[in-house]
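debug: dumping io for the single-chain case to check the tokenizer round-trip. Nothing else runs in this session.
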Amino acid sequence: MTRALTTPSTLTSCCAKTPPTTPPPTDPQVRILCFDKPSGWTSFNAVKFLRNRCQTRKAGHLGTLDPLATGVLPVFLGEATKLIPLFNQQHKSYQATVLLGRQTDTWDTEGKTLEEKPLGALKPEVVRKVLEAFQGNIELPIPAFSARKVKGRRAYELVRKGERVPEQTQQVVIDEFGIESLEMPEVAFRLRCTSGTYIRSIAHGLGLQLGTGACLAKLRRVKVGREFDETNSITPERLEDDPQTWPWLDLRGLLKDHPSVQLDEVALGKIRNGMRVEIAPENWEGAAKPPKASEEDAPVCAWTTSGENLVALGRVLWENDQDYFQPHRIFHQDRTC
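debug: decoded output
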């Protein structure tokens, strides 16, 4: 039986034909979607697909997923791309399946097979003991087939041209780990790790230590930080034609841990021109404290008086017993999507 592969080209639609009939569920200038990336798509494919559907030029995402992988890919559209640095270093959680006895050039099953070895009398207890050592602060090799730059060029581009890529390693932290199943030749586990960790490296390292070779067979990202997970993600097939109906994430909820001020239109007009403005005690929202009592560069959100629209990110300056808001990222009106 032939299975039809869903690709970005089979899911195209123009979102601008019909004007929105209902108000958007969040700030129309700043749109963030938790996308459930299908297998076979690159992260670039996913971003391009959403960008075209929304007819916006600017788009970005948190944490690249290999084509093999599926799962949570937070995508930031339009002015929301300016928020990416606030979330870019968050921990990520995965479910992974490793195939023992096979070594490939990409360290996953999509690569060229370099060697296959029988597992012989290898016992599950030995695999479990070796795998459980991949926890805490560890050093892992970086795959040659990766997006890391070597002398200004992507490593995978050099490999494909037959050029040698020097071996590199990285320090990562795996702070949660659990084996879910161990049925030879496959072992499935769940982990939470620092941003930038290559799960393929764990598979490759396991194979080296066991002497059997191993590669990554399946990978699903289930969570990014605290805000993005499977419960608020959506697959491309479930997206309606009109982006106004999409499950855009609540901006207020995403930024709830950042102190906020509400300012009038006079002050916001100055902010939009890059000028700093005075902040009165009544401008602070809720129990927010002036950041002079916390980290100097702690980001502060400036909202309209209604509290519905994000106007700028900035920091607070303390001068002559007066708080000043100094913008460093300004959110301009984006009428697309």
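debug: round-trip ok. The first strand starts at residue 30 and ends at 37.
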